[in-house]
Amino acid sequence: MRIIRPLLALAVVVGAFVAPAALGPAAPGAAATAAVPLVESPAATAEISVDVVPAASGILRPGDDLTLSVVVANRSSDTLPAGTATVYLDRAVVDGRASLATWLAQPDAALPLESDRGDVIARVGSPELFPGESTALATIVVPAEVAGFDETAPFGARRLSVLVASADNRQGEGRSTITVNPDAGFTPTGLAIALPITLPASTSGVVTGELLESYTSPGGLLTRQLDAAFGRPVALAIDPRIIASIRLLGTSAPESVTDWLARLESAPNQTFPLTYADTDIAATSQAGGVVLRPASFAINTDLFPEGAGSDAASPSPSPSAEPTTPVAPTLESLLEWNYSTTGIAWPRAGTVVETDLDTFAAAGLETTIVSSANSTLDEDVTTGNAAGTIGGRTVLTSDAVISDLLSDAVDAPTVASWEAAMVRLTASLATLATEDPDADAGRTVLATLGRGDALGGFRLSDTIAAVGAIGWSAPATLDDARASPPAAREIVDMPVAAEQIQGLQSMFASEAAVAQFATIVADPSALTGERRLSLLALASQSWNTAEPAWALAVADYLATSGEILSAVQVETATITQWSDSGPLPITISNNLSVPVTVIVTVTSRTAILDVTEPQVRVEIAANSQNRASIPVQSVANGKVVITISLTSETGVPISQPAQAEITVQAGWETAVTSVLAGLLLLVFVLGIIRTVRRSRRPAEGAATTDTAAQEPMGAPGPDAPESNTAAKARD
């Protein structure tokens, strides 16, 4: 069988040109099936997949040949015998985008009747395929006279399909469209496109210099995004986190990073800000009725010498020059940007409920981008302008169909899949342009590229360029979309998943607890600023909150907050109180990287110990311990349990109250004092005696000297030893 495969391929090539010609010309709307036997329509099967892609994004001008690429794949576990691929064309204009969407949806049940597919315009052979094998059929070229469209053919999309039937009667179908364009018969639709300039999911609210250098390098993520949209009719929705992170680098910012920021500033595109870190504002609204913003940033002042900027690269001053004073940026200056427009909320598509619009408006976001799948129009309106109102609130409606097709093209993994996506997008825009042919002015619709498209879509530039070349789609700006006649809409509530709401609410509660705890720090933002930035990062739309990675990141956030809340503690131990009154030592530890100030409060459970001054203010340096001295008075001996609690100076409880056991041995104080006093007296008396004895010794020495002076020279003294002669005489 493999030996004849080249011959079979040759037969396919010949059939691609001979078979259509054998069908003869067909007038528009005329059947061309007389020379082709009808084919039965059994149940559809997933065993055979057929992909058909017309050339030139499916655009066919009268008098042009129709060129098709067809790929057949055998997805079954059995060999697929050789068969026939039959091309069908319905020359009637598709009567609306709903009909078009139904047609393009691949069949899951029964294949349509042959009469519903239209006319047969070509037939070629399909080779034998082993299990898992796929092959591209020879390019099918349908002559213009067979396609049957002349200058009188109406503008619009037509249904096109290829049915592959094997010798064992297994079938597979591929569907597509062509758009006949006689350069008349349509009203161009204004198409505004919004592209998010965002970053991948992260747990940090500030992007490091290393990552930014990678993103702004040639071929980097941010470079690709800006290259694709620069100077094109695309509105850029910018994540302020990118701008703030670059500015926080100060003089350490890599050259590629500063160059990218300068290029973004010079872009002629319309721009508007996303919320910081592109937070999922519908989720934060439904979880807590808030739109989050950063509270503060940790700033390295060494990176911001006075006059840094254009002069930062100048030679170093002479040693005698005056040192510069660091000029640190403010929260406002880090986030400031010259946006074309502001006040736009862009929640994740298909997640908005009506009360969210009020939350957004209260935060200054008066206009909300809402997916058309998340709202409805009046029954007599098929497609409205992008501008609209919902419950008195201003909205910009993102056309869900156009947006999805645009995303399919941007995310296409292969050239063939990109071409197929562009065929569908072209046909959908053509159908939109014919929905109201009597209108003096066409609609203006908005298409939005999803966050994933901006992050991973490697065909972003090609897609935007191709859309701009479609004649029945007129480039429009975001201002054009906002200025179009508004359509009254109603929201279709599509709440955020419960798991995401629960995760956000847990982080909200944790952040609030840290904010209360931070009152023990002179500058609470040293703790709260980082927690808010991390929360913003975890609330970003770049996260797929249905995946385990997000839940793990949330758990890590909560654990870190828990470590902060337990960083200041009472170090408990059994204490013995020997005196009737005196200070009771209480040790406080601080594991934070900043100093804290707490109020230590001690209460006794029994009357054995009277706490005369129950509250003491204590300062503890960073990563250290300090001791609080609590004045107490013992009433009797025994054991007593005291409760030690910590609060901030504003009265906020810090950590859990601790308990310590105190052993009071006040009776020992008198005995010990008496013994010590006796010992001291004894030492004093002994000292006096020693002093007296020493004073007497010089007097005795003087008397002895006088006696010796009165005796004759040579006379023995009273203590002199006897001579030998005297001793003998005595004997």
UniProtKB/TrEMBL annotation:
Compositionally biased residues, Polar residues: 722-731
Transmembrane segments: 671-689
Chain positions covered by the region annotation Disordered: 306-327, 696-731
Tagged with keyword Cell division: no
Keyword Transmembrane attributed: yes
InterPro entries given in the database record: DUF6049
Stated name of the protein: 2-oxoglutarate dehydrogenase
Signal peptide boundaries: 1-21
Keyword tags: Membrane, Signal, Transmembrane, Transmembrane helix
